[in-house]
Amino acid sequence: MKVRYTVRARADLNDIYGYLRERAPASAEAVKSLIERRIARLADFPLMAPTTDEPGIYELSIVRVPYKIYYEIQGNEVWIIQIRHTARQPWSGGH
């Protein structure tokens, strides 16, 4: 499967990286890389995360960092919808 990012998800990843680069430059690249590696695994294992209450939406937790990836599967593509810090309000749907 091919993994694609929505504009919102790409902006989320850039915002996370920018925030961490300002506050913890030594770990910013490692966290971004970890998130991207976990997302890349979805190409081979798109059903590895549990579904949410929203039909067709999956929630992938990132081990060791407080982020969750929300995604959906459309045909042969995994669409990353949003990347959220776990301290924020839970994702409530919508793209």
Distance between the termini: 21 Å
Strand content: 25-35%
**Name of the CATH superfamily:** RelE-like
Largest sheet: 4 strands, mixed
What layout of secondary structure does this protein have?
Elements (H helix, E strand, L loop, with lengths): L1 E4 L1 H17 L1 H17 L15 E5 L5 E8 L2 E9 L10
Parallel strand pairs: 1-4
Antiparallel strand pairs: 2-3, 3-4
Structural commentary:
With 95 residues, the chain is α+β, with helices and mostly antiparallel strands. The protein has a single domain, classed as YaeB-like fold. The chain is built from two helices and four strands, in the order E-H-H-E-E-E. The protein has helices at residues 7-23, 25-41, and strands spanning 2-5, 57-61, 67-74, 77-85. Strands 1-4-3-2 form a four-stranded mixed β-sheet. Helix 1 (7-23) packs antiparallel against helix 2 (25-41). The longest helix is centred in the first third of the chain and has 17 residues, at 7-23. The radius of gyration is 13 Å and the shape is globular. The chain starts with a strand and ends in a 10-residue tail after the last strand.
